[in-house]
Write a structure and sequence with these properties.
Number of strands: 2
Order of helices and strands: HHEEHH
Distance between the termini: 57 Å
Number of helices: 4
């Protein structure tokens, strides 16, 4: 019997979750890589490795030295241009709207 344990006891970054909870469970690595790289200016590198008898994925997301600063309307455009499934797009837009509202309230 095989089991997968995901225990982010000290936190988990997006690349850790992507590797463990998506790609290592059978998501199409090439499709995920292409989607991420088409959405934002990063490169994604996925490698399998074995550590103390445990197979895992190492997902590295390389960002440019200077990350661009985007406004809320620019983020909305990036999300809409990504051609995500409608529920995913709706969720992402909702999250960024909440973040923008929070930032606005902090500034007044």
């Amino acid at each position: 019997m095989k089991a997968r344990v995901f225990n982010p006891f000290s936190g988990a970054s997006g690349d850790m979750i992507l590797g463990c909870a998506s790609l290592d469970l059978g998501a199409d690595r090439k499709a995920i890589k292409e989607l991420i790289e088409a959405s934002v200016p990063v490169s994604v590198d996925v490698k399998e490795f074995l550590k103390k008898g445990i197979k895992a994925l190492d997902v590295r997301i390389k960002v440019p030295d200077k990350e661009p600063t985007r406004t809320y309307p620019e983020l909305v455009e990036v999300i809409k241009d990504a051609k995500l499934p409608s529920k995913v797009e709706e969720s992402a837009l909702d999250i960024f709207l909440k973040m923008a509202a929070y930032q606005f309230l902090r500034e007044i």
